[in-house]
Write a structure and sequence with these properties.
The protein has 289 residues and is of the alpha/beta class. The chain folds into 3 domains: 6-86, Winged helix-like DNA-binding domain superfamily/Winged helix DNA-binding domain (Arc Repressor Mutant, subunit A, Orthogonal Bundle); 91-161 and 260-288, Periplasmic binding protein-like II (D-Maltodextrin-Binding Protein, domain 2); 162-255, Periplasmic binding protein-like II (D-Maltodextrin-Binding Protein, domain 2), CATH 3.40.190. The chain is built from 10 helices and 13 strands. The protein has helices spanning 6-15, 18-25, 29-43, 59-86, 99-116, 133-136, 168-174, 218-226, 236-245, 274-288, and strands at 48-50, 55-57, 91-97, 120-126, 140-144, 152-160, 162-166, 188-189, 195-200, 203-208, 231-235, 249-251, 260-267. The strands form 4 sheets. A 5-stranded mixed beta sheet has the order 4-3-5-13-6, covered by helices on one side. The protein has a 4-stranded mixed beta sheet with strand order 8-11-7-12. Strands 1-2 form a two-stranded antiparallel sheet. Helix 5 (99-116) links the parallel strand 3 and strand 4. Helix 1 (6-15) packs across helix 2 (18-25), helix 1 (6-15) crosses helix 4 and helix 2 packs across helix 3 (29-43). The longest helix has 28 residues, at 59-86. The relative contact order is 0.14.
């Protein structure tokens, strides 16, 4: 009973015409009119102003329309959600990710994913800039660290660690720093920032440093560290294999910043399709193993 006349009412409200509403719904104009009349009687209020030339909403009709439109949108979204669960993933996914993390971690997994789902196509744009997903038409973004408040929905995928490391050859020649103040006496291999991040007495602290080398490439900085040219601070995906093999030794572990979260973000106002849901679940599974 509560649903009777709702679809007809919304169609007339949006078309401003009983005739066009009937054509949209595939029913007769007379049936649309009967449903609206019955709805107004049930609500005991007038929803439309009717003349021979024009149909428009009353003030009460405007309020009722806003609520009914939301209800129908929710019903359509619920039906799409069920359909997506049963649908075979296909079509294009457009995503963005940070450059290095995207190259080393995300895109190799994307390659595996499209082998599993050959009807899915992926367009990836790697950038360290925060792209507007809705404005630029992205279905998905991979972000690292703290998130700004937004209307985006976030799902945790994994974490990354940041290490301070040096090669045994460097430590043998220059010694090992045991406090943050000692870093200024060492050769520090710097990236695009002129500071390194630490936790000191429970608070995050940025230490400004300088060194002989400054690269905007984590791969090049890791290589310099391996060759004994200095101390480096980098995320684990540049260093973990070298740490495990003993080619690099971690330093200042007591000052290590907490792990940073890797996030998958997608627009709140966009229905999560089967292909996007599967990709997010796949990345979460593979990145945490």
């Amino acid at each position: 009973m509560l649903w009777e006349g709702i679809s007809e009412f919304v169609a007339v409200a949006e078309k401003n015409s009983f005739t066009q509403a009937s054509q949209q719904l595939g029913i007769s104009t007379a049936q649309v009119s009967r449903q609206i009349t019955a709805l107004e009687k049930r609500l005991n209020t007038k929803l439309f102003y009717r003349t021979t030339r024009k149909v428009s909403l009353t003030e009460e009709g405007q309020i009722f329309y806003q609520h009914c439109r939301g209800v129908l949108d929710g019903l359509e979204a619920a039906e799409r959600a069920i359909t997506n669960l049963q649908a075979k993933p296909q079509g294009t996914i457009k995503l963005t990710a940070p450059v290095t993390y995207g190259e080393q971690q995300i895109l190799p997994l994307i390659n595996n994913f499209i082998q599993l789902y050959p009807e899915v196509e992926v367009t990836a744009f790697l950038t360290n800039q925060k792209m507007d997903l809705v404005e630029n038409g992205f279905d998905l973004a991979i972000r690292i660290g703290n998130l700004a408040d937004s209307t985006l929905i976030a799902k945790k995928l994994s974490q990354r660690s940041n290490y301070v490391c040096a090669a045994p050859s460097y430590i043998k020649k220059h010694g090992m720093p045991h406090s943050l103040s000692e870093l200024e006496y060492h050769s520090c291999l710097m990236g695009t920032n002129d500071y390194w991040r630490f936790i000191d007495s429970g608070k995050e602290r940025n230490i400004r440093l300088s060194g002989r080398l400054r690269y905007n490439s984590g791969v090049a900085l890791a290589d310099a560290a391996l060759k004994g040219l200095g101390i480096v601070q980098l995320p684990n995906y540049y260093l973990q294999d070298h740490i495990d093999s003993g080619q690099l030794i971690t330093l200042l572990d007591n000052y290590k910043i907490p792990n940073e979260t890797i996030w998958a973000l997608y627009p709140h106002n966009r229905q999560l399709s089967a292909k996007i849901r599967l990709l997010i679940d796949y990345l979460a599974k593979e990145l945490t193993e």
